Amino acid sequence: MSRPFSYLWWAELGGIGRSPIAPGTVATLLAGVPAALLLDRLPAGLHLVVLSALFAFACMASDRAERALDRHDPSSIVIDE
């Protein structure tokens, strides 16, 4: 797996972003809600650290996936949901 594909895979959340109908909504339901429920179980300090790390990773993955696709804010990038 090459690096651009890896970032694209993460930015599309493993293909969820390629949903033909409402990719952002599908990503929220399949990945965002479960992630929020898991994060809610962490102690406050660790919650903040993990959330900050996920935010930084999502920014990096989105940026590199945009470059790999050569498009600005494609709908398939759903890691920001």
- Please tell me what the overall shape is: globular
The first-to-last residue Cα distance is 25 Å
H and E order: HHH
Number of helices: 3
- Rounded mean pLDDT score: 92
Secondary structure: helix percent? 55-70%
Quickly give the structural class: mainly alpha
Strand content: under 5%
Instruction: Sketch the major β-sheet.
Output: none
Round the Cα radius of gyration to an integer and report it: 13 Å
Low-confidence stretches: none
Question: How many E-type strands?
Answer: 0
Short characterization:
The chain is mainly α and 81 residues long. Helix content is 65%, strand content 0%. The chain has 3 helices and no strands.
Give a verbal description of the structure.
The structure is a single chain. Helices cover 65% and strands 0% of the residues. The chain has 81 residues and is mainly α. The longest helix is centred in the last third of the chain and has 26 residues, at 44-69. The model has no long low-confidence stretch (mean pLDDT 92).
